[in-house]
Design a protein that fits this description.
Strand content: under 5%
Order of helices and strands: HHHHHH
Shape: elongated
Radius of gyration: 15 Å
Helix content: over 70%
Length: 129
């Protein structure tokens, strides 16, 4: 395996870990998570539903045949989070210094890069890239 292969694997694992480590806040109704989803009008079903989608995305990122799907799902989920920060929530949430927003940006761009690197594996259309 090449250095590129290892770096991509590391980025997939880091992205999956970020998705997984935020789940405890969503699934156990952490006050910040409840505040965020209440503010955007998606509490509690959006909080739990998005948590499940992030769980699925994390696993898809770790399975070689479904990396592209996990990356695409992550991009979709995080584009919604970024949009909510930029329109309703603001960059900073409850004095976090914008850390949730910047983590969302990192995760969005890492999944975008992963999807780009695995674009040829997308069924039907992948060979056109």
């Amino acid at each position: 395996a090449t250095m590129k292969t290892y770096l991509l694997l590391a980025l997939r694992i880091i992205t999956a870990i970020i998705l997984l480590q935020t789940l405890r806040f969503k699934f156990f109704a952490h006050p910040d998570s409840v505040y965020i989803f209440t503010t955007v009008g998606l509490e509690p079903f959006g909080r739990i539903g998005i948590g499940f989608m992030e769980l699925i995305a994390a696993f898809l990122l770790l399975i070689p045949r479904t990396v592209w799907l996990g990356a695409g799902l992550t991009m979709g989920i995080l584009s919604g989070a970024i949009l909510m920060h930029l329109t309703i929530l603001g960059i900073e949430i409850n004095g976090d210094g914008g850390s949730l927003f910047y983590l969302a940006l990192f995760t969005f761009f890492s999944s975008t890069f992963i999807l780009w690197m695995y674009r040829k594996e997308i069924p039907i259309i992948g060979n056109k890239f």
